[in-house]
Amino acid sequence: MYFLFFVIPLILLIPVCLYMFFWFRRIFSLFPKISKRVGIILSAAFSFFCAYLSWPMYRFGGMVMIHFLAASIIIDIIYKMLHRKMGQVPEKWDKVYRSGIISILIVLSIMGYGVVNMRQVRETRYEITSDKVENSLRIAAISDLHLGTNMDADKLSEYCSKIVAEKPDIFLLAGDIFDENTEKEEMKKAAQIFGSVQSTYGTYYVLGNHDPNQYVNKPQYSMQELCYTLDEAGVTVLQDEVRNLEGLTVVGREDASRAGRKSTRELVKEAEEGNFILLLDHQPLELKENAEAGVDLQISGHTHAGQIWPTGILMQLLGVSELNYGYQKIDNMNTIVTSGIGGWGYPIRTGRHCEYIIVDIHA
Question: What pTM was computed for the model?
Fold first, then answer.
């Protein structure tokens, strides 16, 4: 884990520095009064400063730098192709190229779109059928809010009011509702909001990988304090636990990041015979095994549907996530992976959209 999150990004900073050095050298070549030596010194200084802003690579600065590098390299390729075809690029276009303004404008446009997109929360609806339900069953669910990234508790209350208006039979929270950057008071406010959502069977919560605050040395609150606060607000936290309701069994798994969690097959043994089995698991993993265990519907989050394009596609291709987003039928199991109502790390989303989901199950 240390190698993945620190060593690899550190190694990647070497080519970043080299590329930015030559990028700045092109800019300073537009100013003939700047000597070659001074240009080299300034280019080196600015390239190291860019590397500093980019650390760590998975944070905001690194994300912006990756977009900038991609845009600049593509422009470099286009410029070289034009130069080879035309023999000589017109002087004004050559200056535009060397100024780097095109790369800057492209990145600003992408980041601007990402900021706007992060604040547009949609309602996404699914309809499935099952012979295990006598009447219709309506599920409302959210995941990956990471409270504080794109909304505070007051804004969250507005969306919960919209969910209440849908008259759900059950309200599900599929993990990473909070993270290491969530203020303690905001966490408490959100817990009260979730507890106030009216539904037939109540509100159920499973922890994600960020909820326990395991990525910081001095968390604002412990996992035990979080669970206690949710419980006091009337939210049921399921940690490898099962709840049998009228015609419905809710199975809530510990997150895959937690050692020693029970298997789905072991947990579903506690389900009442004939009940519709609903599995709440933060990460969309072990889908085939869950289907074989007899789960009727799995709801997960975690992927953010690739918050920054093309992360989601790459993660699914690499097998990190078995399903990046949306609906998939695996044997007799319906699987839904939501993109989440927020995002992690920075208030920018260039991959898909933010959402809460409504699932109607018909007989």
Answer: 0.89
